[in-house]
Specification:
Alkaline Phosphatase, subunit A; 2 domains
Length: 432
């Protein structure tokens, strides 16, 4: 006997919808999240100006964070996290403990330039090791002007530091070489795609009529969970992945191109997340002891020289403070660019930003004094509802290891501790 394909699909689909719903909707059961969680680390050098950064208990954004005010209800601004591991003896020279502790939370080995070696894996790599098999790229590590190995941020393990990719063009080639669909092809694929619930709609309706009044709400709930899952799966479907437009190739090492290269890196990064090429990414701006001249905000001295009053910078402290605030405000605008790109991608009832944790991390609290206590951190996005956003929290001396553990938990990586084993435990105050 011949069975028509549409009849077979409908029968199979109706059975698939009906069979598991009573088991899946037992009291206390949770539907699987429709969209993947993602994490992005946005790293900047030379600390901040704390009194211009910290919004206070009233959470009123000031000179540095003002560009991010439109996202205030979707962010957590933090201070009071101490990078305790960076003070473990023997302490490496100058800036060497700073970026190197930031994502590893363990003191590197060696005390001077050319001697230092990372002592542990960075958190991006640890998360990628746990979930990276689900995507084409385990993790995407990008940089802007980060071509010096003196101040490493990233490591795959002890003694295994590496530098991020500084060319958005090379990153593009690796991530999107297979994406060739024309816009008309994308539209056609979307139009042809049909939901299994659309195909078996009449059969599901008949099943609902046959059920008792107690079971109907449970079937409705189950059908909606399938619909939400289909919406979540849609973003990986054929034709959904669109590569970014990078334009003419620029010199990635030219100081004048620093802002443009940064935006191209963020375009690549967001497209990689949207296309589900990866779910873990880092973007590092400049190196420790940054030699970048932020001429686009009127500062034609090195960032490091401005923070230290060195390298030809003879301006008074108040003038240098104003320059540092301008530089930090500019980085806040770049962070907003990243959030805007994520927020422009719809996912279910929200956007890709809602399913992501974008974490702004600083090399130190104060670049001039190399202060690693009372560190500033920002989380934007709730990572699929994990974080309770819209707050400003003073964490009163908690080790920053605890934040790294909490971020791993947000990505469903169940770490008990991370980095230096003397400091561990998630920060429950951050949870929704």
């Amino acid at each position: 006997m011949r069975v028509r394909r549409r009849s077979f699909v409908r029968g199979l689909g109706a059975a698939a919808v009906a069979l598991p719903f009573t088991r899946l909707l037992e009291p206390g059961a949770k539907a699987q999240a429709a969209f993947p969680r993602r994490i992005v680390f946005f790293a900047t050098p030379n600390g901040t100006v704390m009194d211009a950064y910290w919004p206070g208990s009233a959470c009123s954004y000031g000179a540095i964070l003002e560009p991010l005010a439109t996202y205030q209800d979707r962010m957590i601004v933090m201070r009071g996290l101490d990078m305790k591991s960076a003070y473990k003896t023997p302490v490496p020279k100058d800036h060497l403990p700073d970026f190197s502790n930031l994502l590893t939370a363990i003191q590197p080995m060696g005390q001077d330039y050319g001697q230092m070696s990372m002592s542990g894996i960075s958190l991006d790599q640890a998360i990628a090791n746990a979930i990276g098999a689900e995507t084409r790229e385990r993790v995407l590590n990008l940089g802007v002007g980060t071509d010096s190995s003196s101040y490493p941020l990233l490591a795959t393990g002890p003694g295994a530091m590496f530098l991020p990719e500084i060319s958005p063009y090379r990153a593009y080639g690796r991530l999107f070489e297979d994406v060739t669909a024309e816009p008309s092809d994308v539209a056609r694929v979307r139009a042809e795609r049909r939901s299994v619930l659309d195909l078996v709609g009449q059969e599901v309706a008949a099943l609902r009529c046959a059920l008792g009044s107690d079971d109907r709400p449970r079937l409705d709930q189950h059908v909606e969970s399938i619909r939400e899952l289909e919406r979540g799966l849609a973003f990986t479907g054929a034709g959904e992945c669109t590569a970014p437009m990078l334009g003419a190739e620029l010199d990635v090492k030219a100081n004048a191109n620093f802002p443009a290269i940064g935006q191209k890196q963020m375009d690549v990064l967001v497209a990689a997340l949207q296309c589900d090429r990866t779910r873990v990414a880092t973007l590092q701006w400049s190196n420790g002891a940054s030699q970048t001249h932020h001429t686009w905000v009127g500062v034609d001295f090195t960032h490091h020289g401005v923070s230290h009053g060195s390298e030809g910078v003879t301006a008074d402290e108040n003038t240098r403070r104003g320059w540092l605030i301008s530089i930090e405000n500019w980085y806040a605008k770049q962070f907003k660019y990243l959030l805007d790109k994520l927020d422009a991608v719809p996912e279910g009832d929200g956007t890709m930003l809602d399913n992501t944790a974008c974490v702004w991390i600083h090399e130190q609290q104060n670049g001039g004094s190399h202060d690693r206590n009372d560190m500033p951190f920002v989380i934007a996005g709730s990572c699929g509802g994990f974080f309770a956003t819209g707050r400003c929290l003073d964490l009163n001396g908690r080790p920053h290891n605890d934040l790294l553990v909490t971020l791993a938990h947000a990505m469903d990586v169940p770490l008990d501790s991370f980095g230096d084993g003397n400091y561990s435990g998630p920060i429950d105050e951050l949870r929704a």
